[in-house]
Amino acid sequence: MAPVLEVSGLSTVFHTRRGLVRAVQDVSFSVNAGETLAIVGESGCGKTITALSLMRLIPQPPGEIVSGSVKVDGTDLLKLSEPEMRKMRGSKIAMIFQEPMTALNPLMTVGKQIAEMVMLHDGASKQVARDRAVEMLHHVRIPEPARRAREYPHQMSGGMRQRAMIAMALACKPKVLVADEPTTALDVTIQAQILDLIGDLQKEFGTAVVLITHDLGVVAEVAQRVVVMYAGRKVEEAAVGDLFAHPLHPYPRGLLGSIPRVGSARGLDVSPDERLREITGMVPALNDLPPGCAFAPRCSLADAKCHAQVPPFELKQPDHFAACWQA
Amino acid sequence: MEQTPLVEVSGLRKFFPIRKGLLRRTVGNVRAVDGVSFSINAGETLGLVGESGCGKSTVGRTVLRLIEPSAGSIKINGNDITAVGKQDLRALRRQMQIVFQDPFSSLNPRIKAGEIVGEPLKVHGVGDRGEREAKVADLFRLVGLRPAQMNNYPHQFSGGQRQRVSIARALALDPGFIVADEPVSALDVSIQAQVINLLMDLQRDRKLSYLFISHNLAVVEHISHRVAVMYLGRIVEYADKTALFAKPLHPYTEALLAAVPLPDPALKRTKHRVEGDVPSPINPPSGCHFHPRCPYAEARCRVEAPVLRDVGVGRQVACHLR
Description:
Chain A is 32% helix and 24% strand. Chain A contains 11 helices and 12 strands. In chain A, strand 7 (176-180), helix 7 and strand 8 form a beta-alpha-beta unit. In chain A, helix 3 (110-122) crosses helix 4, helix 3 runs parallel beside helix 6 (158-170) and helix 4 (126-139) packs across helix 6. Chain B is an alpha/beta fold. In chain B, the strands form 2 sheets. Chain B has an 8-stranded mixed sheet with strand order 6-7-8-3-9-10-12-11, with helices on both faces.
């Protein structure tokens, strides 16, 4: 089965007064229909810029996608004209954001916004589009969808707005859904509901999902494959079970060691005095990256070679890739 | 181990009036905190968890009288701080400090970090200029910053470092009690661990008491000795950390724990979800506030509010069914 989304060699830069910021460097991955790929990393690692690059939503200037290809069903989005791209957004590839108010128009009822999408992309009549909007709201389990369709975004709760945005993103049944921290702003009980919802809709429509998140718990629950990014580059990629059980790169290994876990008191009697494993130091600035491996200054295994040369991203074990001289 | 608690809060209430119309008549109340009681021993951390709007931050602020409570008493070292005037309160404030969530908005961007940390000393007239500077340098070292960084402005620090500056400021007057309101929520995971370790080291070395407010259950489990779970202004469960996480009694605690995604793909996820949103604290549901979302709710839960009652040693739950 050919993957629905194929990203290869994607590099995005920003031309700023402080110099060239290499936000995304040589990122490649692919996602099959019905599969979820998670891109994890901390703030500034380039995960959101990767997502926006897929949608071609990078403000240009100062941003620029300097190389690579983003193929959806074989069509390279980066080669399309802007009007052609506009037709792809929503119909073939859609995005949901952390804060639904950035995606929803506050001056328009939720139903109208969804209907507008359907009319634009599917050429549906007003009546058909309106019915479809209500149907989508019902699909994302918003109670009383017909009444809610006539409401404005501010009349809804955070979780409800997130549902409305998902309804809008999926109204034209896109092949690829890019979800950028879709549950980060939500409470845990609501987060669980939204993750379930995305999973169910994905199964029903066969959508390929690219999930951008910093939350390793969310990754473990919903993703099949994981890409770990650090300072604009991929540092590790593997199937989810493999990555959590045997992380190869010191950065994801450190991340997994640094998070406290719910229920640790249940099995092992962890005393409250036990320290978390820290990753010392901080993420380097993207306009001032070290010459070698970007993680080397924080890495306990780093040697002279790590500080001098960028490690290649290569196959280390069956279906498990990493960029590390020491792994 | 019997000891007098350092902090004793009982029957704490905070209602925010809702005013409407030309005459700004009060038409209702947001019952942000509705009868909350707890105690914290010296050197102990009480974790306060709950979802947004449950009143946990309001508790943190009223406990320090940064917001005036509507009712209830707050005793720190035996002194009821609700009963004292402004002057005495200022003196009592030396014993209690707060660290906020957002290290970007809680530090004045125009003041050097050294002055930010030294400000409480100046306000309370501690030492002369030279002594204060030496103390600030010590505080910088204590929280893992270099004294040379005293001359930097907040924007020159990373998020984690700013939180260290906030912690240094909170420690300046050697308080016994610190309210930490979501102190690591704005930080990246690798930095979170650094700040949590720092808070725990400081507690061990200085016998600090923390009221640790967070929505992150994993962090609360890690740092707390005891935990209080809040829902719509009330504590619904109050227990020893180990007991609570091993076997939650209140259906809301149970739901919260079940909803946390675990960073282990090998674990089978429980498909046990609570439905619905958190109701508005302006018009909370009758009876038990949780009944509309509770899978076990019975007729009684809809009419009669359960009281927080003892169930075993040091453990309380507000539920008719448990």
